[in-house]
Design brief:
about 0% strand, mainly alpha, 2 helices
Length: about 80
């Protein structure tokens, strides 16, 4: 088979094979490091960090609008809603 392939094709296939093996080795080590001795996840176990919410961006601010500002905003929403 290799006699019908160009040298660059052989180098490419070899590089892809080595990259695949390296990826599998690294992923296996990472997963073993993250979950040492772990088997399948039990159904009753809660995933760590599943319920945490991280705030991205500046803190939220709230400002009370006057009745005139509320009316102006409602008019703007009605006007833009017609498009």
């Amino acid at each position: 088979m290799s006699e019908h392939l160009a040298p660059l094709q052989l180098i490419g296939v070899t590089a892809l094979a080595l990259a695949t093996v390296a990826w599998v080795v690294v992923m296996t080590r990472v997963l073993r490091h993250v979950r040492p001795g772990a088997t399948a996840w039990p159904a009753f176990r809660v995933l760590p960090g599943g319920h945490r919410r991280f705030q991205v961006g500046p803190p939220r601010e709230a400002v009370e609008l006057t009745p005139a500002e509320q009316d102006a905003f409602a008019g703007l929403v009605r006007r833009l809603g017609g498009r």
